[in-house]
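Two proteins were folded this term; both appear here.
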Amino acid sequence: MKTIFLKLGGSLVTDKDKPFTARLEIIRSIGNQIQRAIGRLPDTRLVIGHGSGSFGHAAAKASGYKEGDTRFFNSQGFQSICMAAQQLNRIILDEFNQLGLPVVSFPPSASIHSSGKNIINWDLTPIQLALQHELLPVIFGDTVFDTDLGGVIYSTEELFLHLSNVLKPEVILLAGKEPGVWADFPKKSKIISELTEDNFSGFQPSINASQSVDVTGGMLKKVQLMFQTKRLLPATEIRIFSGETQDAVLDALLGKPLGTSIN
């Protein structure tokens, strides 16, 4: 049984420059592509994740949240970010459900607790059972209670890293707005076809954080987390690509080598 993790980036499913704005046509198109891919992928388990885009990131900025901030826990800020993340999750679930996709949401805020931004407990049994029953688990970037810091935000990539320990995906696909990792950001004229830990240092200065509001580190953090995942599962194929191109998500799910590979 093959397992694929598919992340729909916040920059893809929302307009990250317009707070609380979902890109409904893109979401519907991706849902349609997932539906078509499932019919051509027997014996494959799919876990879907999505970013919070202009929902969670805008709420985080408004609440003053900063990654790694150890100031006194702001419960109102935690709640507002949580509500924003779940608002987008509900939009995506509703759109996918209307297309007939058997999606089930697993909010991290309701199932994870951490300490010092390290996950202490996450009962993955419900997700495993959902997969056994041919359902599509959906996770997303969300707030998590933390015994040291009060509350933290986990990105989908961080959640995928933890999930990889148990579900051992053969493929991880990160679909965003950009066609891959740029070798010359912000000029954006050349895509890096393959990133390795050997050539990473040469490209690192140009792998910049997002131009839009992003409280979880942008592209640089994504790449670093994927290197961690690759060290955990060396045989796993990892790709960062654009989900905006026609049928790109379908093609990626079917194995077409798009964007930037992480090796």
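Next, the second protein.
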Amino acid sequence: MTRSGFKSGIKTAGAAALALTVAAWVAAPHPARADAANPKSPADCRAVSDFDLRGKCWDALDRQSQKDQEDAKEEKKRSFGLGLHIPSVSAILPNRDDREREAKIEREDIRDQTLTLASVEDTPVGKLLLTSTDGAVWEQTDTDTINNPPEPGDTVRVTKGMMGGFMCQVTRWQTVRCQRDR
């Protein structure tokens, strides 16, 4: 092998090594190239060094937080009327933190909901069985007769009553006690 052939072989090997180094550097994760589209925590956004990408990261984190809040509200609407709200120990022996926590829960609690009826049935004992378009089933619990019962497509307003009960406003002037079955 001649001296010039040896030098050209070194140059080729050096160029290949340089190309591999550049390819490895491009493929390696960098703080400036962190996943700004799907951040998991604020720490992910703080790790981004590029100003524009950091802004996009914070925006994505904010959108995810807002989506989580909307999902929680929808879940509360879907479960309206199901189960009982058992008072905490703070109702018996309240301290300041417990009172604040209970007040926050009370502020966020849904007090009423308007339902569109999918079907209206009479039970064998003369009570109404109301099924809403979202699948909730409400049953009349008192024995009041309803002069002009609602029909499918009508709206019924359900509100929380005293002592954990519910009231269904079935017509403009008539409200009956009700409970959610499903």
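The beta strands are 112-122, 128-132, 137-140, 155-160, 166-169, 175-180. Residues 111-180 form one domain. These notes refer to the second protein only.
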